[in-house]
Write a structure and sequence with these properties.
Helices cover 59% and strands 0% of the residues. By secondary structure, it is mainly α.
Length: 215
C-alpha cells in the first residue's frame, strides 16, 4: 500500500502524462455492443476485438438478432478472439437474458450485470464506468501487473486488487486509472521490455526503486 501523499503524486503524474478523459479502447456504438465486445476481450487484445466487432455488429445489428443467432454462425465471427465457443454462447445467452429480464436494457447494478453469462466483475465494472458513469475499478492485465509494480497492491487475485485500489485511489480517478494504466502499459511499462529509463512514473514505482537500490 502507498501513502496518501504518494498516491496523490501518482494520480497527478498520470493526469499530466495521459488523457484525463475516460477513454474506452473497445469500439462500440450501443451499450450492449460494449458489453459483448468486453466479453470477447477476455484473453484477447482490444485491437483484435476491434477487428472482429464491425462485421459481427453488422451481421447482428440488434439484440433480437443476437438472441436468435445460430451458435455455429456466431462462432465463425468471433473465432479469432479465442475461446470462441464459450464466447459465442455467452453472447447469445446474455442477449436473451437482457431481453427477457431487463427489457432490452443493460442493468447498471453489479449484481444484475454479473448474472449475465460470461460477465465477471471486470466486464461489469467496465460497463458501469463507461456506460453509466459510475466510478469503477477495472482490473485488467495491465492494471494487475502495473499496480503491483507501483506498490498499490501485493495481491494477484483481481477482486483483492480491486479492493486494494478502491481503498487508495480517489473515487473520481477510479475509471480513469484503468485507461491511463492501459496507455502506460502499451507505451512504456510493457510486459516484455519495459522502458524503465523513459518512464515518467519511475520515481513513484516501488519495483524500479527497489531494483535501482540493489535490494
Amino acid at each position: 500500500m502507498k501513502s496518501p501523499r504518494a498516491v496523490k503524486k501518482l494520480m497527478t503524474r498520470l493526469d499530466e502524462v495521459y488523457p484525463t478523459d475516460d477513454v474506452c479502447y473497445l469500439n462500440y456504438d450501443l451499450p450492449w455492443q460494449l458489453l459483448f465486445a468486453t466479453i470477447l476481450s477476455a484473453q484477447c487484445t482490444d485491437d483484435r476485438v476491434n477487428q472482429v466487432t464491425p462485421a459481427l455488429f453488422a451481421k447482428y445489428p440488434t439484440l433480437d438478432t443476437v438472441a436468435s443467432a445460430d451458435v455455429a454462425e456466431m462462432e465463425s465471427y468471433v473465432k479469432s478472439t479465442g475461446f470462441y465457443r464459450n464466447k459465442a454462447m455467452n453472447i447469445i445467452d446474455s442477449a436473451r437474458m437482457l431481453l427477457d429480464r431487463f427489457g432490452g436494457d443493460l442493468p447498471e447494478s453489479m449484481e444484475s450485470l454479473t448474472e449475465l453469462p460470461g460477465v465477471g466483475r471486470k466486464t461489469a465494472n467496465l460497463v458501469r464506468g463507461h456506460i453509466f458513469g459510475i466510478p469503477s475499478i477495472i482490473v485488467d492485465t495491465h492494471v494487475k501487473r502495473i499496480s503491483f509494480k507501483l506498490g498499490l497492491t501485493s495481491n494477484t487475485d483481481p477482486y483483492k486488487i480491486e479492493i486494494d485500489l478502491s481503498k487508495q485511489l480517489p473515487k473520481e480517478h477510479w475509471t480513469r486509472y484503468n485507461t491511463q494504466i492501459i496507455a502506460h502499459g502499451r507505451a512504456i511499462c510493457r510486459a516484455r521490455g519495459p522502458k524503465c529509463s523513459e518512464c515518467p512514473l519511475s520515481n513513484l514505482c516501488n519495483m524500479y526503486k527497489s531494483a535501482s537500490s540493489g535490494s
